[in-house]
Design brief:
Layout (H helix, E strand, L loop, with lengths): L2 H28 L5 H11 L8 H14 L8 H20 L5 H11 L9 H12 L1
Helix pairs in contact: 1-2, 1-6, 4-5
């Protein structure tokens, strides 16, 4: 992994941890037994994180999707969903600002927009949060 990838992963882990702590606190304040799996599920689905991808990688993937579709591009459905959401946001940016190139639209989206959720599996988040906390 290169330095930029490590920075993106660190940013993602910080956002994941912060969101998890927020939802954990909410559950704690409700009183009663805390269901960690429920807290992680809320963290995944109710958070609005950044897209944790580099511009270069995103440009390459989105160009491929725009030219060839998503068929056989992804092994995991979550990745396909994330790329489709990112592409939708870029296309909305291009529609509202037709003078922009795809690269400029992508830059704006990566800098200013948030994903609708974490595109991570429950098991991955569970293990990642355990590793981060210990």
């Amino acid at each position: 992994m290169n330095k930029h990838t490590n920075e993106l992963l660190a940013m993602r882990d910080n956002e994941l941890t912060s969101a998890y702590k927020k939802f954990l606190k909410e559950e704690f304040l409700k009183g009663g037994k805390i269901n960690r799996r429920k807290v992680i599920e809320r963290t995944i689905t109710e958070s609005r994180p950044h897209f944790h991808v580099s511009f270069e990688h995103a440009y390459k993937v989105l160009s491929t999707i725009r030219n060839h579709g998503t068929k056989n591009c992804f092994k995991l459905t979550l990745h396909q969903q994330m790329w489709q959401e990112l592409l939708t946001l870029v296309e909305e940016e291009l529609t509202s600002r037709p003078y922009l190139s795809m690269g400029h639209a992508l830059s704006r989206v990566l800098a200013e927009k948030r994903a609708s959720r974490f595109y991570l599996s429950h098991d991955y988040c569970y293990k990642r949060l355990y590793k981060i906390e210990n």
